[in-house]
Amino acid sequence: MFGTKQDKSEGWVKAGACFAGLISFRLLSPYFTPYLNSDNAVHILMTCDFSLPEDYYYWGQDRLGSILPLIAHFLYGLTHLSPALLSSFVLYGFIAGILLVFSPLLSQRYSILWLSCWLFFPVEGVDYLIRLGHPYAAQFFFACSGCACLIKVEKRIRQEQTLGAGVWLLGGCVLFFVSIWCSEVSLVFLVALLPGWLAHHFRNRRAGETHVVRWKMIVFYSALVALACMGGLALIGYFKAHAHPIQAFNEHWFSNPSEISQALLSYLHVIGNALAGKRGLLLALHDWLWMLLFFWSVARMVYSFYSSSVSFHWLTLVFFLSALGGEILLLVSKWVCINGFSARYQTFPYLAALFFLILVFDSYHSGNGRNLFRVLFGLLVAVSVISSAKSYIRKESRLDGELSLQEITSMKLCVPAGVIGDYWHSYLLSVANPAQLKSTPFDGGRNQRWVDSTRFEKIIYLVKTNWLPAYPKDTVLFGSHLRFTGDSSEQLGWEYGKYTNLSARK
What we know:
The protein is an alpha/beta fold. Helix content is 58%, strand content 8%. Strands 2-1-3-6-5-4 form a six-stranded mixed beta sheet, covered by helices on one side. The longest helix is centred in the middle third of the chain and has 27 residues, at 215-241. The radius of gyration is 25 Å and the shape is globular. The model is unreliable at 1-5 (pLDDT under 50).
């Protein structure tokens, strides 16, 4: 009547995962976070101002498909709720979707709880998973969904349901291409699928599990994959043809050998500083635990190829190779070389390694060191949660120009008006009231629609930073003649002056 003990335990685990998501949303989602910046603001503004075909990618870029603002814009048209709130709902919907898609791969009921804590409270430094402006949540959701389709394909093949397998295969290809649209780094994941599946196939053959795949089936499945690839590449080419990047992402893909060696030295220096506690004792504890468990898991995975007593899901190798490939890509990437070895670039390999670790943890049913592995794993999750909560409470890593939505709302600006500043001090002020407060960077910004909307406002605020050391009496920006009213203000570290637009339409 009241369910078994196991059912109740699984219920508590699911409730715990939901509770972690709700707490994370209240503390860390874009609607509540104290770390909103102009990168995040672009995605919020796209929620209420989305236009195709110009906005297949985020404003001013030819990469990072705008799937999140596309969905949020659709919801905005239905509800007219706050764009920041809708963006937060969609972002967290993707993270919840990852849990729903990935949970069938986990056999131990507590694995999903640890994974949810890890995803909803990512450790400081790779917390871009829960920030707008980064593709990781959508990217991994579609990649994991594609893997779920491949598992269905394997099941249908074993049941000799050729047509059903073909449908799931085609669906998986579509999902993988959406993941690539979100971020081209997903190609690393696709490359890792082949060796992962081959290792799975040869392991099954060694165990005596065989299944005859007829040539007609191979031709049929190959044709479907080829069709999906051609369609996907054509669509991505079409999307890029309509992009208007302010900086070409694919002008140079890879660094030269000297730059790669320099990047490797820089990478080792970053790791050394992290392990030495330069980022703080809490993060140093996380990094040491992470490296210990990662290499322990790698050793256990390698051992599984020589012992039938240890088994893994075949996606374990795929996620390991994705993490390894992601790190290699960072070292040879020209983009990373130009922009520096930022922590945000580590998010993809970190997340791939996270799924690798959770699959190893889930498969650790017996054997030497099982209890120690679980204790260390639980400690690692706890450190991640504490680090994430600590960064919210103390705001230690807040950068210049970052505010919360509540702080932006509290700023007293006359509306309707326009705002012009540098990139990090312009778009952000519009997120609380996009309809009446337009904004653009002084150097042209990322969207011509917002440049035009801003320059035609009768009142324009100029945000004082390095580009504007003092308030000129008269200035011309975007063809509009602006005259200083003498009224200036400073709030929350932002200093701005009020100008009358003499060129504004009467």
